[in-house]
C-alpha cells in the first residue's frame, strides 16, 4: 500500500480543459472519493492516476515514485471499471487470476490466491462459471476480486456501483467499506453519488469544471462547505442560500437581512459591501413565532420520520427539515430562527465562503493538504 | 387514439410467437428459394457423374447410369490408340484405366488439375490469411488510436473497391511483368490481398469498434502490454468477426477468374482459369469440367458450413449484440 500524491495535475483535450491544476494527497490506507457531476473531470483524474490517460501537465507520485508518464502496466495499481470489464471469454477463476498470470506467478500459487480472494468476497462457489451469466452483484465482486488478488499499491474505482439497483447498492456500499477496513488499501473512488461518498470515504474531493472545489473529510465538507457549489451539491435537500447585500467588518457576529438581525459565527476578515449569501442547512432551521425573520409556508414534503417544509421569505425560498408530527397550511405565516453557530457566509459573486470561527479547524486541514 | 390503434402499435413492437400459418408460408418460401439456388449445383454434380454422351444428349437425361469417367478424365491426360494396340496391353490397372480403354484411349499421365487446385488452395488461403491479418491490425489501429486523417484514409481504402479490379488489369499485367511477379503464386497472393484488405479493414473495424476499450484497459492495468492485451483480450473476442471476414476474403480469392486468367498461365495457374480448358478437343468432355467444378466447390462449402454462424453474424454485422 502507498500514498498517492497528485501535483498540479492538468489535462486538456484540445481546447477543452478537463482537469486544471489539481493537487491532493491520498494518504496510505485512506479511502478518497472524487465526487462531482458528470463531466467535472473526476474520471479523467482517475484515469491519469491509472495511466490510461497521459496528463498535459503536473505530476503523479505513487509511494514517492514519479509515475506521471509510466504505462498503466508498469504502475502497481488495480482499477475497477464502471461496467466491470470482466473478460467475457474467461470464467470467473481465469478473470481473477489474469493479473497474476501477467506477473508470472506459478500456477499453484495463482490457484491458491484466487481461491483465497474468492473466499474473502464470498464468490468461491461461482469460480468455474462463465462471467456472462452472473448477476450484477457477483460481477461486481469478481471485478473486485481481480483487483485485490494482486495486492496492488492502490485501488482505483470508477463508479463501480453505478449500474446496480438502489437496494443492492446499499449492500455493496457496506461491503466495500468493510473490505476497505479489512485490507486497508489506498483507494480512490469516483462517484457522482454523495451518499456513496459520504458513507464510504475518509476524505472527499468535490470537483466541478475540472477544479477541486474542496478537499476534506465528509464532515468538513458537509458542515463547512468551502463554496456555494459544494454547499449546494452536498446534502439533500441542499443548503439554503439567503441572499442579501451588506458590508461587514472583521469580528462581526450578526448580519441584517431585511429588518431582522441574524446571528452567525464571528467573521475572521472584513467583507467589502456587496452581494452575500447566508448558507443554512435545512436541519438548522426552526420555526419561532417570536422571530423577526418572517415568511409564509410555501409547501411541504412528508418523509416519514421528518418533513421538508418550504417557506417563502423576502430573499427567496428556505427549506426546513422539521419533525413530521405538525402539519402546516399553505400560506400560514411563520417566523424563522437558525442554529447560528452552524451558519456559513458566502461571497455571492465568487461563490467562496467567508472565513469565520466555524472554519478554524477546517482551514488548518486545508493548509496541510496544500 | 382509439383503443384499436393502440393494440396494433403494441403488437408491432412486441415479440409474438409467429402464427403457424405465417410459419408455413415462410418455410415454403425458404424451400422454394433453396431449390432454385441448389438446382445449378445439383446439375453440375449430376453432370460430373454422367458419361460424355449422356452429358450432351438432348433432351437432357434425368435418369442415367452413373459413370466416373468425368473424374477419370479430370485427373489424367489420355492418348488415342488403335483398338489392336489396346487389345495388346496387359489387363487394365484400376477402374479409370478400364473406362479409358473403352473409349479407345490409354492414360498417358496425370493431368494438371491437381497442381492447379493446389495453387488455388495456396493462393486463396495465403491471401486470405494476409488480408485478414493486415486488416485486423489496421482495423484495430483505426478503431483505437487517433490516426491523422483517419476518415480520409478509410475512405481511400474503401475507394480501392469502387472500380472493378479488372479495370486496372493491364497496368498490373505490365507491372507484374517488370517485377517478375507474373505467373507466380506470390504475385497472385499479393494481388488478392490488396483487393481484399480494404474489405477486411472495413468489416473488422466494425467488429472491433463493438469491443469495449475497457477490456484492453483492464488488461493493461492487469500488467499486460498493449500487444499482449490485443492478443489475449481483443483477438479472442474478435474471432467471430475475423471468421466472417476470412470467409468473405476466401470466397473472392477462391473464385477470382479474370486476373487469374490474365496473369497466370503455367506454374501458378489457379483452378478457375484451368477448369474450362479441360473441355478438350471436340468440346465434349463436360463431365470432366463438371467434376472439376464439383471438387472446386468442396473447400469453400466445407469452410462455409464450419463457419456458418459467424458468417450470418458477419452479414448482419453490428445489428446483433450479445
Describe the overall structure.
Chain B: Belongs to the binding-protein-dependent transport system permease family. Chain B: It is a multi-pass membrane protein. Chain B: Pfam families: BPD_transp_1. Chain B: It is found in: Cell membrane. The complex is a heterodimer of chains A (370) and B (322). Chain A is α+β, with helices and mostly antiparallel strands. Chain A has helices at 42-50, 92-102, 107-120, 136-148, 166-183, 194-200, 218-223, 228-233, 360-369; strands spanning 4-13, 16-26, 31-35, 57-62, 65-66, 77-80, 154-158, 186-191, 203-208, 211-216, 240-248, 254-257, 260-263, 271-280, 285-287, 294-302, 306-313, 316-323, 333-338, 344-347. Chain A is elongated and about 75 Å long. With 322 residues, chain B is mainly alpha-helical. Chain B has two domains: 21-111, no CATH class; 114-271 and 298-315, MetI-like fold, CATH 1.10.3720.10. Chain B contains 16 helices and two strands. A two-stranded antiparallel sheet of chain B has the order 1-2. Chain B is globular, with a radius of gyration of 26 Å. Residues 1-12 and 317-322 of chain B have low confidence and may be disordered. At the A-B interface, strand 6 and helix 2 of A face helix 11 and helix 12 of B.
Amino acid at each position: 500500500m502507498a500514498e498517492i500524491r497528485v501535483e498540479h495535475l492538468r489535462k486538456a483535450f484540445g481546447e477543452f480543459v478537463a482537469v486544471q491544476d489539481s493537487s491532493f494527497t491520498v494518504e496510505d490506507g485512506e479511502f478518497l472519493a472524487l465526487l462531482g457531476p458528470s463531466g467535472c473531470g473526476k474520471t479523467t483524474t482517475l484515469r491519469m492516476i491509472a495511466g490510461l490517460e497521459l496528463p498535459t501537465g503536473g505530476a503523479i507520485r505513487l509511494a514517492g515514485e514519479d509515475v506521471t508518464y509510466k504505462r498503466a502496466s508498469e504502475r502497481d495499481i488495480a482499477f475497477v471499471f464502471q461496467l466491470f470489464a470482466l473478460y467475457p471469454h474467461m470464467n470467473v477463476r481465469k478473470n481473477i487470476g489474469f493479473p497474476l498470470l501477467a506477473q508470472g506467478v506459478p500456477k499453484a500459487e495463482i490457484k491458491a490466491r484466487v481461491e483465497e480472494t474468492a473466499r474473502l468476497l464470498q464468490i468461491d462457489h461461482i469460480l468455474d462459471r462463465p462471467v456472462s451469466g452472473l448477476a450484477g452483484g457477483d460481477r461486481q465482486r469478481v471485478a473486485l476480486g481481480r483487483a485485490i488478488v494482486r495486492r496492488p499499491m492502490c485501488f482505483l474505482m470508477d463508479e463501480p456501483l453505478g449500474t446496480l439497483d438502489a437496494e443492492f447498492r446499499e449492500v455493496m456500499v457496506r461491503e466495500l467499506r468493510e473490505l476497505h477496513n479489512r485490507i486497508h488499501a489506498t483507494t480512490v473512488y469516483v462517484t457522482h453519488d454523495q451518499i456513496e461518498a459520504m458513507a464510504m470515504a475518509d476524505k472527499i474531493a468535490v470537483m466541478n469544471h475540472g477544479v477541486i472545489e474542496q478537499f476534506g473529510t465528509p464532515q468538513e465538507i458537509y458542515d463547512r462547505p468551502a463554496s456555494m457549489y459544494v454547499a449546494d451539491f452536498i446534502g439533500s435537500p441542499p443548503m439554503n442560500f439567503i441572499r442579501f447585500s451588506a458590508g461587514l467588518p472583521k469580528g462581526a457576529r450578526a448580519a441584517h437581512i431585511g429588518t431582522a438581525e441574524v446571528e452567525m459565527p464571528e467573521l475572521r476578515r472584513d467583507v467589502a459591501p456587496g452581494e452575500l449569501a447566508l448558507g443554512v442547512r435545512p436541519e438548522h432551521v426552526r420555526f419561532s413565532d417570536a422571530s423577526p425573520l418572517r415568511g409564509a409556508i410555501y409547501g411541504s414534503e412528508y418523509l416519514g420520520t421528518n418533513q421538508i417544509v418550504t417557506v417563502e421569505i423576502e430573499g427567496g425560498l428556505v427549506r426546513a427539515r422539521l419533525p413530521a408530527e405538525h402539519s402546516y397550511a399553505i400560506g400560514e405565516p411563520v417566523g424563522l430562527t437558525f442554529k447560528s453557530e452552524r451558519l456559513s457566509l458566502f461571497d455571492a459573486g465568487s461563490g467562496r465562503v467567508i472565513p469565520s470561527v466555524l472554519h478554524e479547524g477546517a482551514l488548518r486541514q486545508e493548509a496541510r493538504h496544500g | 387514439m382509439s383503443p384499436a390503434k393502440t393494440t396494433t402499435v403494441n403488437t408491432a413492437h412486441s415479440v409474438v410467437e409467429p402464427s403457424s400459418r405465417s410459419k408455413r408460408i415462410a418455410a415454403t418460401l425458404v424451400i422454394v428459394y433453396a431449390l432454385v439456388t441448389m438446382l445449378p449445383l445439383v446439375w453440375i454434380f449430376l453432370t460430373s457423374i454422367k458419361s460424355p454422351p449422356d452429358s450432351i444428349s438432348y433432351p437432357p437425361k434425368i435418369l442415367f447410369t452413373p459413370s466416373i469417367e468425368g473424374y477419370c478424365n479430370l485427373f489424367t491426360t489420355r492418348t488415342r490408340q488403335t483398338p489392336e494396340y489396346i487389345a495388346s496391353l496387359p489387363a487394365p490397372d484400376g477402374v479409370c484405366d478400364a473406362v479409358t480403354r473403352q473409349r479407345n484411349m490409354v492414360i498417358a499421365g496425370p493431368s494438371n488439375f491437381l497442381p492447379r487446385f493446389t495453387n488455388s488452395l495456396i493462393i486463396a488461403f495465403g491471401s486470405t490469411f494476409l488480408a485478414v491479418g493486415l486488416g485486423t491490425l489496421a482495423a484495430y489501429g483505426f478503431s483505437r488510436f487517433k490516426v491523422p486523417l483517419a476518415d480520409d484514409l478509410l475512405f481511400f481504402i474503401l475507394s480501392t473497391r469502387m472500380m472493378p479490379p479488372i479495370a486496372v488489369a493491364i497496368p498490373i499485367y505490365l507491372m507484374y511483368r517488370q517485377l517478375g511477379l507474373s505467373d507466380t503464386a506470390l504475385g497472385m497472393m499479393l494481388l488478392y490481398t490488396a483487393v481484399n484488405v480494404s474489405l477486411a479493414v472495413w468489416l473488422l473495424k466494425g467488429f472491433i469498434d463493438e469491443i469495449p476499450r475497457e477490456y484492453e484497459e483492464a488488461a493493461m492495468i492487469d500488467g499486460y502490454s498493449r500487444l499482449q492485451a490485443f492478443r489475449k483480450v481483443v483477438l479472442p473476442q474478435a474471432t467471430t468477426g475475423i471468421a466472417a471476414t476470412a470467409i468473405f476474403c476466401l470466397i473472392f480469392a477462391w473464385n477470382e477468374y479474370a486476373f487469374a486468367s490474365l496473369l497466370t498461365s503455367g506454374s501458378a495457374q489457379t483452378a478457375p482459369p484451368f477448369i474450362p480448358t479441360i473441355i478438350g478437343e471436340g468440346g465434349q468432355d463436360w463431365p470432366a469440367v463438371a467434376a472439376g467444378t464439383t471438387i472446386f466447390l468442396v473447400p469453400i462449402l466445407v469452410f462455409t458450413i464450419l463457419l456458418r454462424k459467424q458468417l450470418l453474424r458477419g452479414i448482419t454485422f453490428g445489428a446483433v449484440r450479445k
